[in-house]
Amino acid sequence: MMILGLETSCDDTAAAVLVDGILQAHVVSTQLDHDSYGGIVPEVASRLHEQNIVPAVKTAIAKAGVSLGDLSAIAVTYGPGLAGSLVVGVSFAKGLSQALDIPLIGVDHMEGHLWAGFLDGPDGAADYPFLCLLVSGGHSHIWEVAGPGEYRLVGRSLDDAAGEAFDKGARLLGLGFPGGPAIQSEAQHGDPEAVSFPRPFRGTDHCNFSFSGLKTALQYYLRDLPPGELDRRRADIAASYQAAIIDCLLDRLQVAVQQTGLKSICIAGGVSANARLRDQLDTWADKSGLAMRYPPLEFCTDNAAMIALAGYHRHLVGETSGLDLGIFPDLSLAHHA
Ligand code: KG4
Ligand code: ZN
Question: What is the model's pTM?
Fold first, then answer.
């Protein structure tokens, strides 16, 4: 079964080709035009998706060495995301599915992230049940995954997402966007124990996160620094701030493991690219006999390979969408449960 995956929920136009669960080729066209605005401009994003989607699909098909006529189905992100961006991908997918007379599969973007850790497996199959720490720019969730479409939300951020904490922290520290990679790179030369930032909810027995207080703590810390001190101590402050975010993620995940008894864990979403997070998870997994699964770095952030794989598993259980598939900017995985 050959699936074309399409992803246009935010600022990446992505296409991928997957055959029987195995990735053949993928393309991500990242929109750089937003950098000069200091954030994503929805109107600009949808126009660029419209320009980029045909070249992205053509390149993915060519890289896979196949032709459009070989496709068996099209999987497309239909939410959550920016309405104008989702519309481009979904409309394109509908047109192509109609023209080629092949099924259309609407995929939840977050469900795609859940599958990213299985893209490097022999046939893209997952070992259920497992816990997934899904940490991106818009979400910080811990999901218990019992099977395709069987998701239970174990914990979530009550305010900012972990990626947002990185992005807002980087802005305060005068580092670039996106903030996660910028903080990680600055932190390489710093001492993670130089500044003592709070660890919200440590010691509590639920699995929820809170990151907004951490960002405020950084804001106050920087406000009270003598002039010139930030430039001298940026690496130490970045390392300490990163350590606080990672500690919170680990601490809550440990509670989730205690509560569910699950020993198999995967991480997903943009923040799952973080090297300190991976190091600390490895240490914990070795000590506690846990099986830890990480997506290859290129599949942590938004891509269409994960959408194609999620679509493949939906298709295997006979789930396809009609041409009346709509976009759902506020779609939540909880809707599938
Ligand atoms: O999953 P993603 O690409 O987009 C969303 O669906 O949100 O995640 C983007 C987020 C950004 O907040 C970015 O700062 C963060 O992932 N991120 C990282 C790293 N790489 C990307 N955070 C921490 N460390 C990284 N290496
Ligand atoms: Zn994402």
Answer: 0.91
